[in-house]
Hints:
Layout (H helix, E strand, L loop, with lengths): L4 H5 L10 H17 L5 H8 L3 H8 L5 H12 L9 H16 E3 L6 E3 L7 H10 L4 E4 L9 E4 L3 H11 L15 H4 L2 H15 E3 L6 E4 L4 H14 L5 E3 L2 E4 L1 H7 L3
Antiparallel strand pairs: 1-2, 3-4, 5-6, 6-8, 7-8
Helix pairs in contact: 3-4, 6-7, 6-10, 10-11
Amino acid sequence: MQPTAQALSRTYSDRVYPDPWEKVLDYRRVLAYAAEHPNAGRVRVGRALDLPDERVRGWLKDAVPDPVRAIDTAIDHGWLDPDPDGETAAALAELLAHVLAGGSIAAENYVPAVAPGGRVDISEIRCAFERVGVETRTRNEKTDGRATEIVPTDDGTVLGRCLVAMGAPAGMKTTLDRLPAVVWEVPRPVRRSFARIYVRHRGLNYEGKSTTRVQVDRPSSFIEEVREVLNDVLDEQISSADVGLTISADAARELGVE
C-alpha cells in the first residue's frame, strides 16, 4: 500500500536524475561500497560504480539527497508500506480524507493544511495529525480574510509528500478525477470513516430539510467514485448528479453525520 519509498522519492525533481528513485539507489550503492571498502576514495568508488567523482565525494562527506532524507524520516514515523489492516494505514487514510475534503497540500513546500468547518472542529483535526505522529499549530486564526488552518509543526513536508504519494494532489484539487486507490485498499470500516470525514467536511445542510448535499468542484468521475464509496459502506443508497451528491436523512444518520 502507498506510500512506498519509491513513490515518496518521486515527489521530488532532480536536475540529473529523471527518476529520483535512481538517485536513492545510487546513494545506497555508494554507502554500501564504502562500507565494504573503507580505504577506497571517491575516485575508486566512482569508477567501481560508474558514477562521477564529484557526486560520490559529496555523498561520502555526509551530503544526503533530499529523497533519502525524506525516506528516512518517513521510516522513523512508520509511514512507508503500511499494512492496509493496520493502525498506520487507517490514520493516514483518515488524514487523507481531511486533506481532500477540508484542506490542501501546498505545491511549493508540500506542507498539508486542514481548515475546520461547521461539523469538524480544530481538536478533531489536531487529533488526525497527532494520530500519524506529528504535532500541529494553528495559523491565520487572527488574520482577516484567511481561513484558519491546522498545519504540522514538524516533518510536515515529508508527511505532505507521503499523502501525495497516496494520491492527494499538491496545489489545486479541482482536476482530481478519481479518489486515491488506497481508499479501496483499506478495510471497509476505515473506508466508512473516510466517507464520514469527507461528508462532514463537505456536506451542506438545508434549512427545513433533513438531507445533506455534498457539492464539490471536481470532475463528474470523482463525484461518482465518492458515491460508490458511500454506497459500499451504507445500506441506504446515494443518488448523484454531475455536481454533487444528495444524502438522505436516513443515510446521514447511518453514516454518523449530524
